[in-house]
Each structure stands twice: as C-alpha cells, then as structure tokens.
Design goal:
The chain is mostly beta strands. It has one domain: Beta Barrel (Acetoacetate decarboxylase-like). Helix content is 6%, strand content 51%. It has 2 helices and 13 strands, in the order βαββββαββββββββ. A 9-stranded mixed beta barrel has the order 1-3-4-5-6-7-8-11-12. β7 and β8 form a beta hairpin. The longest helix has 9 residues. 35% of the residues are buried. The model has no long low-confidence stretch (mean pLDDT 91).
Length: 248
C-alpha cells in the first residue's frame, strides 16, 4: 500500500495569500470614510460592451465614478477610485467594477486578492471645501486619468444617498498554455453605509486624453446625472459570488 502525505492547507510552510497574507482578513471596518459618487449617462452600446453576459444594462444606461478616502483601515489610510458600469443582476441594481486605482500597496493586494477589485497602484486625491469637492486620479507615474468636481455643494438629508453593491470579476489565469482560467467568479461585495453627513452639488467629470491608453477612457459622458459626497462608517465584508456567469 502506498503511504500518502499528510500535509494540510493549515500547515503549509511557504507563503501564499491565504497562509501569509499581506493584509488582515475581512471584514474590514472603515470608519469616517469620505466618498464622492458621480453618476453620468452613457451610450447603450458602450454600457453593453463592458458588461459580462448575465448582466443587463441600466435604463437609461449610466456609469459612476466612485472616489473614496479611508482614513482608518486595517492597513492604515488609503484612497480608492473605481469606474463602475451600473447594471442589473436578475432584477437587482448593481455596479460592475471595470477598473480601479488605489494608492497603498497593502490595500492594493487585499482589494485584488480578496475582493477582486480590478485595481492598479496609482494616486487618488479627494478634497472638499465649503463650496466645492474635487477628485483627481492618476497612474503611479503621474499620468492623469480622470478629474471630477462638485460645485455649489449643499448639505442634504442622509437618506438621499444610495450606493449599489459591487460586482467584481475574479479571474485566476491557468499556468498551462491554452488552458482556460482556473477560477472564473463574479463576487458581490455589499458594504454597509452608516451616513454621518451628505452633500450634493453640480457634477463635472473629465476623462483625460491619456485615460484611454490606461483603460479608463471607455465611456464618453453624455449627461451628468448626479453628484454626492458623504462622510460615513462603512466596511469591506466577506463577499458573495456566482460562478459560471459567462454561460447564458
């Protein structure tokens, strides 16, 4: 009779994202988060071109830029910017993450490995004055990607804000040539939001000429819909997912 090995995943002596992560495990509490959300209408074909099968477009089709600064997190302060294609999964409104930038390496590793955010390292600036909110997103090399602003800001009731759950695509490439991905999942991430204060303003957004080469220039804004800025306690919880979403 052959003698089989007894090594279990909990006893692995080498480093993997599970046995020796670069970050604490979820859930992550994120107190006093500052969030700018800018919603803008886009063309129907543009929305459909960037949604996986199994998801349907919003009516009218629109996208969102979400820029967030987390002053308190398990890996310290970090900022995140995400470009979202708002959609529906079955009958529920969701936001499909197309591309993201985060400014701290430990947060980058966690966002990609745990929650499947399609993030790269870059710079994210978010600033609020009494009359204006400004956000700037750039690559790690300083190449500008997108600028967003809220003008004429005014405080609003906290109930007038809403954030859709994230849908993130997890792909793990096969190590064998010509083989399909080993993992193909759609994660649904549902942060909770406890709004402390909220403002709205006149939104503007500009995707720079350099955004296209970096994957950020996929949408041409047709009309600005809304812009809100909030201060809240939120989190990054464990995710839910659906598998084999590519099949119809």
């Amino acid at each position: 009779m052959p003698d089989f090995g007894k090594l279990t995943p909990a006893r692995l002596p080498y480093t993997t994202p599970i046995t020796a992560p670069f970050y604490p495990p979820p859930p992550w509490p994120l107190q006093d988060a500052h969030i700018l959300q800018v919603s803008f209408e886009i063309g129907k074909e543009a929305s459909l071109a960037w949604l996986p099968p199994g998801l349907t477009r919003a009516i009218p089709p629109y996208a969102q830029l979400l820029v967030t600064h987390y002053p308190n997190s398990p890996v310290g302060p970090f900022s995140l910017a995400v470009l979202l294609d708002v959609c529906r999964f079955q009958v529920r409104s969701r936001a499909f993450s197309l591309i993201a930038v985060v400014d701290v390496p430990a947060a980058l590793a966690a966002l990609r490995e745990v929650w499947a955010f399609p993030a790269k390292l870059g710079t994210v600036m978010l600033d609020k004055t009494d009359t204006r909110v400004t956000a700037r997103v750039a690559t790690a090399a300083g190449v500008p990607l997108v600028t967003a602003e809220l003008g004429q800001v005014e405080e609003i009731d906290q109930s007038q804000t809403r954030f859709e759950p994230f849908l993130n695509l997890r792909l793990v490439q096969s190590a064998q040539e010509g083989k399909p991905p080993l993992v193909l999942e759609m994660l649904q991430v549902d942060p909770e939001y406890h709004i402390k204060a909220a403002w709205r303003g006149k939104p503007q957004i500009c995707f720079h000429d350099t955004a296209g080469a970096e994957g950020w220039g996929v949408f041409s804004p047709l009309y600005m819909i809304a812009g809100v800025y909030t201060v809240c306690d939120t989190d990054l919880p464990f995710a839910r997912y659906t598998q084999e979403f590519m099949s119809r």
